Amino acid sequence: MDEKTVPGGRYHDLFEFSTEHRKAMSSTYEKILQDLKEAMRAKDTPRLQVLRSLKAKILEKEISERKGSDATLSESQVREVLMKAAKQRKDSISQYREAGRVDLQETEEYELKVIESYLPEMMSEDAVRAIASDIIGKTGASSPSDMGKVMGALMPQVKGKADGAVVNRVVRELLESK
After folding, report:
1. Residue 53 and residue 39 in contact, taking contact as beta carbons nearer than 8 Å
2. Whole-angstrom distance, CA of residue 39 vs CA of residue 112
3. 0.90 exceeded by the pTM?
């Protein structure tokens, strides 16, 4: 048996997928796989490590979403995985900074930069503030106790486009100033 075949006789490569799977695959995920191949060829170990980690997280999410046969993640689901990975890196950076571990902090900052290269540009705080002000006006929110009502209406509009911590802080500031 040739080393490139499997018992079913079909050729499988780590990065080759069926036509149906490729059509359904997220373009961001395809880009990650392409960059993973390039990092392997260039022997760029730090970048390769980050990309392998992202691929594993995306596949893990894909497996958890399966119901029955095959499942592929949508672009927004892949973006969620990437945002979660970026948030984890940001948390680690702040912890390493507090502990004085500059070496680990720099590693996490590099990984965050790689992850963010696959994410769309986030909304500015001013853009979030404008949308939040509009929603506060529409919902009639007037105090911090109305925060849940505002966040419930705001999050669907900014999900995947703005950092949740920034959104939360902006809404809190706007409601406290009323």
Report:
1. no
2. 17
3. no
Fold of 19-116: Hypothetical Protein Yqey; Chain: A; domain1 (1.10.1510)
What CA–CA distance (Å, rounded) separates 48 from 114?
Answer: 10
Question: How is 68-134 classified by DSSP, letter by letter?
Answer: SS-----HHHHHHHHHHHHHHHHHHHHHHHHHT-HHHHHHHHHHHHHHHTTSPPPPPHHHHHHHHHH
Tokens of residue 97, six digits: 């900074």
| Alpha-carbon span 141 to 162, nearest angstrom | 21
Tell me the C-alpha to C-alpha distance, in Å, between residue 5 and each of 1, 9, 10.
Answer: 7, 5, 6
pLDDT of the residue at 127: 92
Average pLDDT for consecutive 10-residue bins of the chain (178 residues)?
Answer: 45 46 70 96 96 95 80 86 94 96 96 94 91 91 90 89 88 88
Structurally, what CATH architecture does the domain formed by 125-176 represent?
A: Orthogonal Bundle (1.10)
CA distances from 85 to 16, 79, 122 (A): 25, 10, 15
- 3-state class of 55 per DSSP? helix
Distances (CA, A) of 54 to 57, 142, 143: 5, 42, 40
* Contact (CB, 8 A) for 58 and 29: yes
